């Protein structure tokens, strides 16, 4: 097809996409090629960048369809201004990708040309052409294209995906024998059931069995779908089919089905649904060997939903049954007593520990809970007695260290600073404890309280040994003249994307080998096209191949960060280099700091128009809440990048007159950031700009944090953080504050927070 006719075709598609939703000014801007961006670029590469990643996508003024129209028009201009160039070829391929769903007939010539122009992407081009043919209704042709992917590119990382798509295409072509072969292969390859297309594959397999009169196989497949994917929409379709009494045989779920469905729901943090299934199981199977496990899961799910009264009774009943799970239920009961501030019951339980067959760790945890409650009542000597029991008999060593820390903290609160110093010094002398930075900081604070000039030396020691910790950050604020240099290798002063050529020197030869890998070459080309998720797939496959080469992994993490795979890059960096990046310092490639503290979402955050919210605070919350995983689901059911609870999301949406938000909506990056950032803005306003209280409230809720703030009025911010009674919230606040201050430091705007 000639370029002129392609241009006319794209133009017609653009105006179809725009419809009537754009005003005349915007329509004119798009049809004229957006002279302010694409028309003003000098080189083909600049023009392509403006087309593939238009800055207009970051705001809320254009819909996704309008952004697509803008991209297509700019890509058309590239083919006209720079015909024959590699960028014109890339513009053609990207146009084809954008048109697969919108106008598949128009997409095909672009994608076929791509097989000639960009052969490195042959497997992707075949996949996209298959999708286009499926949209055109030619399912057999689509199936052939999907099947050809692995034949043409044996090392393709699309093998699992194309197996699913080939099965779907053959199903749509009414060719069940072929469909069953591919779908069975697909579900086997996706043994962890992570691909969202897998439940549909199970449903298609069941339908094929039923079409062929294989009723028993169909029933079995539907039952597996209903149990293993209880959370998926396809599970409801499976249930509806099963209830039709296929083959004349009535169907009723077994107790085991309900137990396994509960586990499926729990895997998605759908606790209310899991509770319903667990109750059905317990009613049906009073003598099941899984009864104790089911009751424990039931109680924990009730805790996650803050149904503390119900959880308390569940754990009490489980304790009385004297089964394997009874000991763990006892610890959970103590935790519930602490959350409900029923201290008398908690103390009574702690006094009965000698009569219970709990492990040393379980007894230690309950004694620590009792000590925390006593501290909260300002019964410090009694709290210290509980903690000292754990310092002597607790397991493992980290529990004994925590108890020692708490002894010192109770003494500090009693203004017995010299005694607190002695306790904390013992932690320091043990070395390598997770509590050592904390102990050093509070030794220095205690020395300050008794006006001992040695405090400056201790602050300096802390930052020499643990320069990137939360406590060294505090030390710099307490004694900026004593703590100047960052220990180990200094981090860069600004967060900037690492250049594509940056490789750690010892790994140059090794990385030259990596660069010749087909997956790496595909990743580079996909990145050029702006198809970052696909580029990330290729790079992620390489990380599996080089798991034992830290230098290569360091460079691959930088590449993943560059293509927007922030979650994968950050997890890789933290798994391999966390000690150097977040604790002790050491030699790492400068570009690794951009991986450890991603800034790719800062433009998105800035476009939200937030009042008084530092974008790096939102970035720090994302980093610690989800590690930039858009699909993250917490154990309590919080969703997405900023781990927003669905109920909170709808309250925020209503407050700001946004459309109602579903659970599934929160997996969308833009929606999640918009809701989460607005909630941060709301909390900051509620707590008069106090960042520490805001972070705590983001985790524990504003009501309880308001109570803590009132209870500890007059305390310094560092003391307030240590006084947070919920361990999860206390550690969360420290992590977010540490990340926030690191973001600020790397951006060159370090200073005291709140």
CATH homologous superfamily of the domain at 3-197?
A: Tetratricopeptide repeat domain
Point out poorly predicted stretches. Answer: 20-31, 486-506
| Anisotropy-based shape | globular
Residues in helices, as a percent range: 55-70%
Computed CA radius of gyration, to the nearest angstrom: 30 Å
CATH architecture of the domain at 3-197: Alpha Horseshoe
User: Could you report the average pLDDT, rounded to the nearest whole number?
Assistant: 90
CATH class of the domain at 3-197: Mainly Alpha
Number of beta strands: 0
Q: Tell me the number of helical segments per DSSP (H or I, 4 or more residues long).
A: 40
Main pleated-sheet profile: none
Query: Strand pairing plus helix content: what structural class?
Result: mainly alpha
Describe this structure in words.
This protein has 40 helices and no strands. It is globular. The chain is an all-alpha fold. Among the domains are: about 5-195, Serine Threonine Protein Phosphatase 5, Tetratricopeptide repeat (Alpha Horseshoe), CATH 1.25.40.10; about 505-595, no CATH class; about 600-745, Lysozyme (Orthogonal Bundle). It has helices at about 5-20, 25-30, 45-50, 65-80, 85-100, 105-115, 120-135, 140-150, 160-170, 175-190, 200-210, 215-230, 235-240, 255-265, 270-285, 290-305, 310-320, 325-340, 345-350, 360-375, 380-395, 395-415, 415-430, 435-450, 455-465, 470-480, 510-515, 520-530, 530-545, 550-560, 565-580, 590-595, 600-605, 615-625, 645-655, 670-685, 690-700, 700-710, 715-725, 725-745. Residues about 20-30 and about 485-505 have low confidence and may be disordered.
């Amino acid at each position: 097809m000639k370029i002129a006719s392609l241009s006319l075709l794209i133009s017609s598609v653009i105006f179809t996409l725009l419809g009537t939703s754009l005003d005349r000014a915007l329509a004119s801007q798009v049809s004229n090629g957006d002279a302010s961006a694409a028309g003003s670029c000098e080189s083909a590469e600049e023009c392509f960048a403006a087309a593939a990643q238009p800055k207009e996508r970051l705001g809320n003024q254009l819909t996704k369809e309008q952004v697509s129209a803008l991209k297509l028009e700019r890509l058309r201009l590239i083919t006209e201004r720079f015909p024959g160039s590699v960028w014109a070829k890339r513009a053609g391929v990207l146009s084809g990708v954008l048109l697969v769903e919108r106008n598949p007939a128009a997409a095909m010539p672009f994608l076929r040309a791509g097989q000639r122009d960009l052969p490195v992407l042959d497997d992707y081009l075949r996949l996209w052409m298959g999708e286009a043919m499926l949209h055109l209704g030619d399912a057999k042709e689509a199936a052939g294209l999907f099947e050809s992917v692995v034949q043409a590119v044996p090392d393709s990382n699309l093998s699992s995906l194309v197996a699913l798509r080939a099965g779907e295409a053959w199903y749509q072509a009414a060719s069940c024998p072929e469909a069953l072969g591919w779908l069975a292969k697909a579900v086997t390859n996706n043994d962890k059931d992570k691909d969202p297309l897998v439940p549909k594959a199970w449903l298609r397999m069941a339908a094929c069995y039923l079409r062929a009169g294989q009723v028993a196989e169909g029933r079995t497949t539907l039952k597996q779908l209903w149990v293993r994917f209880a959370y998926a929409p396809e599970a409801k379709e499976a249930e509806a089919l099963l209830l039709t009494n296929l083959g004349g045989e009535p169907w009723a779920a077994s107790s085991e089905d309900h137990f396994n469905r509960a586990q499926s729901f729990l895997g998605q943090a759908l606790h209310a649904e899991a509770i319903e299934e667990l109750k059905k199981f317990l009613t049906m199977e009073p003598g099941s060997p899984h009864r104790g496990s089911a009751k424990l899961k039931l109680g924990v799910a009730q805790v996650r939903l803050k149904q503390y009264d119900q959880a308390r009774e569940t754990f009490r009943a489980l304790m009385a049954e004297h089964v394997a799970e009874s000991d763990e239920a006892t610890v959970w009961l103590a935790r519930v007593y602490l959350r409900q501030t029923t201290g008398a019951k908690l103390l009574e339980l702690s006094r009965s520990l000698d009569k219970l067959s709990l492990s040393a760790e379980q007894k230690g945890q309950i004694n620590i809970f009792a000590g925390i409650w006593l501290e909260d009542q300002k019964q410090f000597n009694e709290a210290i007695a509980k903690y000292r029991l754990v310092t002597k008999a607790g397991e493992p060593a980290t529990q004994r260290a925590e108890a020692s820390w708490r002894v010192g903290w109770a003494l500090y609160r009693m203004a017995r600073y010299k005694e607190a110093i002695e306790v904390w010094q013992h932690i320091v002398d043990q070395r390598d404890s997770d509590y050592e930075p904390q102990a050093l900081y509070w030794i220095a604070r205690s020395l300050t309280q008794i006006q001992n000039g040695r405090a400056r030396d201790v602050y300096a020691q802390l930052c020499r040994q643990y320069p990137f910790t939360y406590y060294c950050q505090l030390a710099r604020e307490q004694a900026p003249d004593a703590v100047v240099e960052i220990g180990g290798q200094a981090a860069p002063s600004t967060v900037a994307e690492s250049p594509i050529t940056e490789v750690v020197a010892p790994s140059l030869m090794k990385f030259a080998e990596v660069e010749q890998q087909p997956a790496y070459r595909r990743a580079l080309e996909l990145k050029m096209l702006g198809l970052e998720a696909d580029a990330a797939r290729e790079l992620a496959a390489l990380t599996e191949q080089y798991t034992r080469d830290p230098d290569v992994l360091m460079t691959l993490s930088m590449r993943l960060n560059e293509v927007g795979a922030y979650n994968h890059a950050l997890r890789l960096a933290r798994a391999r280099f966390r000690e150097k990046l977040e604790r002790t310092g050491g030699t790492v490639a400068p570009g690794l700091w951009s991986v450890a503290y991603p800034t790719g979402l800062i433009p998105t955050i800035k476009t939200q128009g937030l009042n008084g919210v530092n974008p790096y605070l939102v970035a720090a919350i994302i980093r610690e809440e989800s590690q930039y995983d858009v699909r993250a689901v917490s154990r309590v059911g919080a969703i997405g990048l900023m781990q927003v609870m669905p109920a909170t999301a709808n309250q925020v949406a209503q407050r700001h007159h946004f459309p109602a938000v579903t659970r599934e909506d929160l997996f969308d990056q833009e929606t999640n950031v918009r809701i989460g950032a607005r909630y941060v803005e709301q909390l900051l306003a509620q707590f008069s700009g106090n960042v520490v209280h805001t972070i705590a409230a983001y985790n524990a809720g504003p009501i309880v944090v308001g109570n803590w703030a009132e209870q500890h009025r007059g305390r310094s911010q560092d003391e307030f953080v240590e006084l947070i009674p919920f361990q999860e919230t206390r550690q969360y606040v420290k992590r977010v504050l540490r990340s926030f201050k690191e973001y600020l430091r790397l951006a060159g705007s370090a200073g005291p927070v709140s």
